[in-house]
Design brief:
The protein is mainly alpha-helical. The chain has one domain. The chain is 70% helix and 0% strand. It contains 15 helices and no strands. Helix 2 packs across helix 13, helix 2 packs parallel to helix 14 and helix 3 packs across helix 14. The longest helix is centred in the last third of the chain and has 38 residues.
Length: 431
């Protein structure tokens, strides 16, 4: 079976893009919007780190979750590109490092990402006081270490069993390693189902600490999975153009396209239900989340729906578009960027509010909050050039990490008992 070679020119290109991303990140530290610059929190810088660290760590988590689900379901169609997903899942390791850095910044009050991290604000606010047993700096930091550390254990276990299966030397199907993988997958799935939402509530939903939605976790996790699915398709098509993973056919890409189409609808269902149920129940402390975004961030609110539902739905509705590499690559790029935009929509408005409230609290007379509604706030109202640069840098870092893991094992798990099923995978397609 073929071995992937991480070429020097690929490394050079990715290093250059990572350098660009780092430069944009540092510039976002320097060029703080004037509306909140006086507070000195460097909220643009820290929000860019949080936004991208959570986004890419979540992709790794959801790929691990989906692999575990496929393992317990005896699925075999994805085996030819399983090595790529194993490499994705291991990004949880640098993901944990990034989240620990954010946790330490919260712990040491080096950033002001979360309103609940301000002890004076918590003491004066009954809602924050009631949530303080969960929303506190100790649980944020050490809970992240414990939970994401647990995810890493399972991701590494799946990888180790896959590589051990290759080293076993069996030329016929051997289910011993599959049974072990299925055992660990069955343990991981319920753990992931409970701890994934807990981390989303902590990392993302608590940016707007007074708000709560029972659908937020499923909405956010489906966004992670769609981004991961889109990135998978793009990398598979790229690797095929380089002569690698020739065993991956239109049939496999067609199924990934169907997943992307189906979960685009599911994401939209969560998006609409979350908005409709809160509006219908008329819960004041929850409707403010949408009221603010509709009236103060209309580009984010409506653009999110257009990019992540309308366009991919219309493009992927036809069966043939899921079998054309050019169209599928374009749609995957659109979905990937769209769900990065989705996380921008979740993170930025709440962090801007927190920074403005803290600055107003520190100014005599206050009265500064909500003034951003009538003005453009660089890096918060919509993604700016620096935010796009940071995205490119993080994406290059993710791909560099994946490619470095990909070359350490054969591209195809040659002793996987489901390999033949995957090699002969065929989808009934109607033109």
């Amino acid at each position: 079976m073929k071995q992937f070679t991480f070429e020097a020119k690929q490394k050079t290109f990715l290093w250059a893009v990572m350098g660009l991303g780092l430069l944009c990140l540092l510039l976002s530290y320097v060029f703080e919007p004037e509306q909140i610059a006086a507070a000195g929190f460097h909220s643009r810088f820290w929000s860019n780190i949080l936004h991208n660290a959570v986004f890419f760590t979540g992709i790794a988590f959801m790929i691990t979750f989906v692999m575990a689900a496929f393992t317990t379901a005896y699925a075999g169609w994805y085996v030819v590109f399983k090595r790529l997903w194993e490499a994705f899942s291991l990004f949880l390791i640098p993901g944990l490092i990034m989240m620990v850095i954010i946790g330490l910044a919260v712990y040491a009050h080096l950033s002001h990402l979360y309103h609940w991290a301000d002890t004076e604000a918590v003491a004066a606010d009954k809602v924050l006081t009631g949530k303080s047993s969960f929303l506190n700096k100790n649980w944020y930091l050490f809970g992240t270490i414990i939970i994401v550390g647990g995810w890493i254990f399972f991701a590494k276990k799946f990888r180790e069993l896959s590589l051990a299966e290759d080293r076993s030397g069996h030329e016929v199907a051997n289910f011993a390693f599959q049974r072990k993988a299925r055992f660990f997958a069955a343990i991981f799935l319920p753990i992931a189902a409970f701890t994934g939402p807990a981390m989303i509530w902590q990392w993302i939903m608590s940016v707007d600490a007074h708000w709560y939605s029972t659908l937020f976790a499923w909405y956010s996790m489906s966004s992670w999975w769609l981004a991961g699915c889109a990135l998978t398709i793009m990398l598979l098509i790229y690797l095929k153009t380089k002569g690698s993973l020739t065993e991956v056919t239109k049939e496999h890409l067609h199924d990934l396209g169907k997943f992307m189409f189906a979960f685009t609808i599911f994401w939209t269902y969560c998006w609409f239900s979350q908005y409709m149920l809160i509006w219908y129940s008329n819960v004041g402390e929850e409707t403010t989340y949408f009221f603010e975004r509709i009236h103060e961030y209309p580009v984010l609110f409506y653009g999110n729906l257009v990019i992540n539902f309308v366009l991919p739905f219309l493009i992927l509705m036809r069966n043939t578009t899921k079998r054309r590499y050019g169209t599928l690559f374009f749609t995957s790029a659109l979905v990937f960027i769209g769900h990065w935009f989705d996380y921008f929509y979740m993170v930025k408005p709440g962090i801007l509010n927190t920074a403005e409230e803290a600055m107003a609290h520190g100014q005599e007379g206050g009265g500064h909050t909500a003034e951003h509604a009538a003005s453009f706030v660089s890096g918060f109202t919509i993604p700016g050039i620096l935010e796009i640069g940071v995205l490119l840098g993080f994406t290059a870092f993710f791909i560099y990490f994946v490619f470095s893991k990909l070359e350490k094992a054969t591209l195809i798990p040659q002793n996987d008992p489901y390999l033949e099923e995957s090699l002969h995978h065929e989808v009934q397609a109607y033109e």
